[in-house]
Amino acid sequence: MRSKQHHFAGGIVRCVTIALMAALPTSTFAQSEVQAVVLKHLRTSRDFTLKVADQMPESAYDFKLTPPQMSFAGQMVHLSQAFDEYLSPIFGEKPNPEKPASMSKKDVIAFVRRSFDRVIEKVSKLTPAQVSKTFNTDEGTMSGLELLMAMFDHTTHHRASAEMYLRAKGITPVEYQF
Fold it and tell me: 30, 31, 91, 121: which could join 25 in a potential S-S bond, CB 3.0 to 4.6 Å?
């Protein structure tokens, strides 16, 4: 399902996560701080992603840079569906990603918003034990924190791809937000 780039990025995410985990105290306070930071950046990522999605004209939502690539709408839907894949192990669920009503601009934007809102709600319920626990995934074993970081990395990758679609259409993407 994932490309070699995802595997390479995953390795980087794991290295950074291990370094961060080693640097952070292991107290519940530190882990709840991690949760607060993740929630803050999920909200920023949601708002930024929605701005990018809104910039593409409806008539170009099916635009692809090259035939084998996902459409612009496909990029937005894929990054939103992947939340389920990253969070499912943490919550002991099987991935069951939803789909938008259609690939129209209106339906895709509504889907992206709902997907981010669901992930924000789920992350707000994470326990310190879930953040530090190790889970078996299709990519190997990862801690809850690693899964959260991989989720962000995946979102950034596909949002950046969508920004290139905007540029190809002569649209300057909104300014980066972090």
Answer: 30
Contacts of 31 by beta carbon, 8 Å cutoff, 6+ apart? 128, 131, 132
Segment 124-149, tens digit of pLDDT? 999 999 999 999 998 899 999 999 99
Asked whether the whole model's pTM tops 0.90, one would answer no
Helix count and strand count (H, E) for the chain: 6, 2
> Taking Cα atoms as reference points, which of 117, 129, 43 lies closest to residue 91?
129
Give the whole-angstrom CA distance, residue 25 versus residue 177.
28
pLDDT digits (tens, 9 = 90+) for 1-56: 444 444 444 555 555 555 455 445 455 546 668 889 999 999 999 999 999 999 99
Counting Cβ atoms within 10 Å, is residue 140 exposed (0-12), middle (13-18) or buried (19+)?
Answer: exposed
Angle made by CA atoms 11, 176, 64, in degrees to the nearest 5: 75
Which helix (H) or strand (E) covers residue 135, if one does? Answer: strand 134-137
Q: If DSSP codes are grouped into helix, strand and coil, which group holds residue 3?
A: coil
Bridge partners for 137 per DSSP: 140
